[in-house]
Specification:
It contains 3 helices and 10 strands. It is an alpha+beta fold. The chain has one domain: tt1808, chain A, CATH 3.90.1570.10. It has a 6-stranded mixed sheet with strand order 3-4-5-6-7-8. It has a two-stranded antiparallel ribbon with strand order 1-2. Strands 9-10 form a two-stranded antiparallel ribbon. Strand 6 and strand 7 form a beta hairpin. The longest helix is centred in the N-terminal third of the chain and has 17 residues.
């Protein structure tokens, strides 16, 4: 007896947006579209929320006028993906995105605890393919910041794991490097 092949339906960004507008996702449910699949986002514990705020505050200090530091807002990266990174730094000002989400970022930061595998295996390749020049994954379990640079296809050529004693400066930023300890709760 053979088993019939079962295919997964992949959603486009336009279908996903129509589903959201139609109220198919309850308002308190956090979801995102990555490579045509709608994923439930893991609930945020207090350490995660604290790390997001610490990253946001640090990045606002070092990015000059002309950059928008966005927290947990959509990025329109391709026809099948609209992730909502914890923090994204985009060129432009807040009002530039009144009618459409940004389509590029100079830096994306994902804060990861339970979502570490998802961020590495699904979102990092998406960000690399989309040409995001720099991705940070704040690994709360190991108290590290993984810095991914030089996108090449669906991967990054440069990956470094930085601990509490290290510092990091985004490629597109100006100012002194940020102590990694300042980004961790």
């Amino acid at each position: 007896m053979s088993i019939a092949a079962v295919e997964t339906h992949r959603w486009t960004r336009e279908e996903y947006e129509r589903m959201a507008e139609a109220g198919l996702f309850p308002p308190d449910r956090r979801v995102e579209l990555v490579d045509g699949i709608v994923y439930d986002m893991t609930p945020q514990n207090s350490r995660h929320a604290t790390a997001v705020r610490l990253v946001e505050e640090a990045l606002r200090l070092i990015f000059p006028r002309g950059y928008d530091v966005r927290v947990q807002m959509p990025l329109t990266l391709d026809p099948d993906s609209q992730p909502e990174p914890d923090v994204a730094v985009v060129r432009g000002a807040t009002r530039d995105f009144r009618d459409a989400h940004p389509t590029a970022a100079v830096l994306v930061v994902e804060v990861a605890d339970a979502s570490l595998g998802h961020d590495r295996r699904r979102k990092a390749p998406l960000y690399a393919r989309s040409g995001v020049p720099e991705l940070w994954i704040v690994d709360l379990r190991r108290s590290l910041v993984e810095v991914y640079r030089e996108p090449d296809g669906a991967a990054y050529r440069s990956v470094a794991a930085l601990g509490r004693g290290d510092s990091v400066l985004p490629s597109a930023a100006q100012g002194p490097p940020l102590p990694v300890a300042d980004l961790l709760p």
